[in-house]
Design a protein that fits this description.
It is a single chain. Helices cover 23% and strands 26% of the residues. By secondary structure, the protein is an alpha+beta fold. The protein has a six-stranded antiparallel beta sheet, with helices on one face. The two termini are 37 Å apart.
Length: 203
């Protein structure tokens, strides 16, 4: 995810340190999430907050993009991101990705980027989108298979499973049906070249 502008108003171009750009006295950094302090050159001078320990890069005096995934890289013009809601993917420890959402504001003689962890919300949204997508695909596949019969039905089922596996990017998928004895049997399956075939006892 890259940054997501949520405000169409033009961003303020006042430089930090100007009288009009000073942070209000009651504007204190949030103790939750992640707070990144930047100088006027865009270098991170301080990292604070409970999420700091989860970052892959914890050293300071580095450009902001050094902490971000490539997909979230920001332009060098830091002030242009004021008055925008930013959603950024940070490189986490162990190759993880931490999705944070927050805002940039002038603070003292530089900038303050305050962010909250929304990884769970993003994952829930992705799971919900995937579920809707799968249900829509299933309805389409069911309609297509409804026009088939006999030997062609099983062949068409394998073709549908192949499409489903590729779209979901999974190694294998199968359909199992009960036989006359009430036992589950693999009716059709589709597997990647390095995946094991499904067996009846797995149904």
């Amino acid at each position: 995810l890259g940054f997501t502008p949520k405000n169409d108003r033009a961003a303020s171009n006042q430089a930090p340190g100007d009288a009009g750009a000073q942070a209000p006295l009651n504007m204190t950094p949030s103790p939750a999430g992640l707070s990144l302090y930047l100088d006027t050159q865009g270098l991170v001078t301080r990292i604070a907050g409970p999420l700091a320990a989860r970052l892959a890069v914890t050293a300071t005096q580095r450009p902001l993009n050094d902490y971000l995934c490539n997909s979230s890289a920001l332009a060098a013009d830091i002030p242009s991101y004021q008055q925008q809601l930013l959603e950024l993917d940070f490189n986490g420890r162990g190759g993880s990705v931490i999705t944070l959402r927050g805002w940039l504001q002038a603070y003292a003689e530089g900038w303050l980027l305050q962010l909250l962890d929304v990884s769970d919300l993003v994952e829930q949204a992705r799971s919900s989108d995937l579920r809707r997508h799968v249900l829509a695909e299933a309805a389409d596949f069911a309609q297509r298979l409804g026009y088939q019969s006999g030997e062609r039905l099983q062949t068409a089922t394998v073709e549908v499973l192949c499409e489903l596996r590729q779209r979901l990017r999974i190694p294998s998928v199968a359909i199992a049906l009960r036989d006359q004895a009430g036992e589950w049997r693999v009716y059709a399956q589709q597997n990647a070249y390095n995946s094991q075939a499904w067996r009846d006892e797995q149904a």
